[in-house]
Amino acid sequence: MSAPRNLLDKIWDAHVVQSEPGCPAVLYVDLHLIHEVTSPQAFAELDRRGLSVRRPDLTLATMDHSTPTVSRSLRGLAPEARRQLRRLEANCARHGIELMRHGDPGNGIVHVIAPQRRLVRPGMTVVCGDSHTSTHGAFAALAFGIGSSEVAHVLGTQCLLQRKPAAIEVRFEGTPGLAVTAKDLALAMIGRLTPRGGTGAVLEYRGECVRALSMEGRMTLCNMSIEAGARAGLIAADDCTAAWFDDGADYSHWRSDPGARFDGSVGVNVAGLAPQVTWGTHPGMVAPVDGRVPEPADAAETRALAYMGLQAGMSLQDIAVGHVFIGSCTNARIEDLRAAARVLKGRRVAPGVRMLVVPGSQLVKRQAEAEGLDRLFRQAGAQWREPGCSMCIAMNGDVVPPGEYCVSTSNRNFEGRQGPGARTLLASPVTAAASAVAGRVADPRELVAEVTHAV
User: What is the largest CA-CA distance in the chain?
Assistant: First the structure.
């Protein structure tokens, strides 16, 4: 009888083409996702070597990072952004790769459209030239970001040289409090692990509150794995996974066996957890929304407070915000938009606050509009935009001005991430919506309780 294996072991073993002691393994790739930012250099390398794309049928491209959200037209884009998009279009046409162009019915953020199309399935390997490829681990798939030279390697061979990473069990313990979402679980975990706690490892998320998450919530949690320094995140396949595909297939193999060994184990106590919000310049600088800015523990935190313009001891809810962003590959799915809409219903965005709501794909946009969510957002005073990465990365015209605060549902709050000098506070869609109404960082629990009572 074979020894029990964890989920990473099972996926890895099923995809190793060749391995030798002391050397990286040749790992087969089931799905390769590409976009306009990290693919031009890779295609140029293929051209230099006279190579073609090995499996265009296992490659999917989309335009998302550089695309405008104000319209479906590319007019008005910066010249470099337009060149990136036109280059992707030409490369895909030349190599026979399916491309979701800006404005196409299937277009959207790369980590939103692939799951929508049911392209990512348990037991697969998925790569993309984007660190948040970890999103797809929600489906019990080994999914991770790669560099441009590796993108070229996968395009040319459908394989990748990789050393097997460590597998770390992250067990969430306890029942979170009211208005706590998968985003709050992720931020609490990163605060516990720090951005280096999972360095280079694959984190397998376990525990009752993980199993209770929807597939969309699981994508949010796995999306944030990279912010703990991890290579990828994984969640075992279960009934929720099977219901997502609804194809009668048995996915029960794609979970860790009882007694499987891990290279490490971390417990994250979320009993009574409050909604979370970041105060610093990495996602691990986080606190409860009803808490205070902590005293800096080191030089990095001292610098973060200076950049953010905050003082230790001040209440987070005293931070006035001028911008609220709901979107990104972390929180731009229909479940996220519904949650924000419930908070905004019958309310108005505070005067002076610019609120952008950016769906993750054209499909999400159509679904939201069919449900009337777009009207609700507009009535509240928010801007309803076209799909794209938008304000998450600020390379498409959606920028936070220097020195101004933005409550954002995206995944990164590094210095300048949302624009030079921008000050980002990461939070969930419900916390972001509550903050838009209040005009400052706000605790969503009162508003959510009101909504629940009304229902």
Answer: 67
Q: Average pLDDT for residues 313-342, to the nearest whole number?
A: 98
pLDDT band (50, 70, 90) for residue 78: confident
State what percent of residues in the chain have pLDDT above 90.
Answer: 94
Handedness of CA 210, 214, 215, 219 (dihedral sign): negative
- Do 92 and 57 contact (CB within 8 A), yes or no? no
Q: Domain range holding 229?
A: 167-269
Q: Which of 108, 130, 162 is the last residue of a domain?
A: 162
- Summarised one tens digit per residue, pLDDT across range 375-419 is 999 999 999 999 999 999 999 999 999 999 999 999 999 999 999
- Classify residue 394 as exposed, middle or buried by CB count within 10 Å of its CB (0-12, 13-18, 19+): middle
Instruction: Enter the DSSP assignment of 305.
Output: H
Q: For residue 450, what pLDDT is reported?
A: 65
Burial of 2 (0-12, 13-18, 19+ CB in 10 A): exposed
Return the SS3 of 306.
helix
Q: Are strands 167-173 and 202-206 parallel, antiparallel or unpaired?
A: parallel
Between CA 341 and CA 52 the distance in angstroms is 46
Cα–Cα distance measured from residue 242 to residue 246, given in angstroms and rounded to the nearest whole number: 6
- Please give the C-alpha separations between residue 443 and each of 276, 349, 396, in angstroms, as whole numbers: 9, 15, 30
Residues 108 and 245 in one domain: no
What's the CATH number where 150 sits? 3.30.499.10
Burial class of residue 96, CB neighbours in 10 A (0-12, 13-18, 19+) = exposed
Q: Is residue 1 one of the residues assigned to a domain?
A: no
C-alpha 400/C-alpha 12 separation (Å) is: 41
- pLDDT for the residue 1: 65
Sorted by sequence, the CB contacts under 8 Å of residue 2 that are 6+ apart come out as: none
